[in-house]
Amino acid sequence: MKHWLMKVEPSAYTIDDLERDGTTKWEGVRNYQARNFMRDEMRVGDKVLFYASNAKPSGVTGLAVIRRAGYPDPADETWTLVDIQFVKKFANVVSLETLKATKGLEKMVVTQKGSRLSIQPVTKSEYDIVVKLGKK
DNA sequence: GCCAACGTTGGC
DNA sequence: GCCAACGTTGGC
User: Fold this and answer.
1) What are A92-118's pLDDT values in tens digits?
2) Do the strands A80-95 and A23-25 form a parallel or antiparallel pair, or are they unpaired?
3) Quick check: pTM over 0.85?
4) Residue A87 CB lies within 7 Å of the nucleic strand C
5) Helix H segments across chain A?
6) Residues (26-85, chain A) with CB within 7 Å of strand C atoms
7) Distance between CA atoms of A27 and A68, rounded to whole angstroms?
8) Å between A48 CA and B3 C1'?
C-alpha cells in the first residue's frame, strides 16, 4: 500500500467537488513523471492527500483513495488516468506553511523548494502526520 | 501580478 | 546530444 499527494488548483477542482461527486477521473496530468506514478505504481486502495495549489492558503484539504488504478486516457492514450474516491474533508486546511514547520515532514516532496510535481509519493509516516494535523 | 524553478522544444 | 529559448507551475 502506497501513499500519495495529488495537487489541483481550486479553480479546476476542490475537495468539495470530490465530496459531491463521490469519485472522479483524475484528468489533465501532462507531466511524464506524474503520469508514470499513476500508470505504474498506483493501486486500488492507495491513500491520497488531496492538495490545493495556488490557493489561499495552499495546502492539504482532505483525503481520498485510489478507486481505479492507471488506465489510458481515452482522449489521448499517451496519458493516464486514475479514479479517486472521496474519503474526508479536513475541518481545517493543513497549509503548506504548517507542513514546512512540522517535524517529520522535512523531506516531504511538497515542502521542497521548487517542487512542481503534481503527483507525489508520500511516506506512511508523512501521511499519518498530515492526517493528525487535519484533525486539529 | 511577479518571478524562480524547472520541464519541454527545437535549432544546430 | 547540447543547450538556449520558451512555456508552465505555483508560492508569495
Assistant:
1) 999 999 999 999 999 999 999 989 999
2) antiparallel
3) yes
4) no
5) 15-21, 32-36, 96-101, 124-134
6) 30, 53-55, 58
7) 13
8) 30
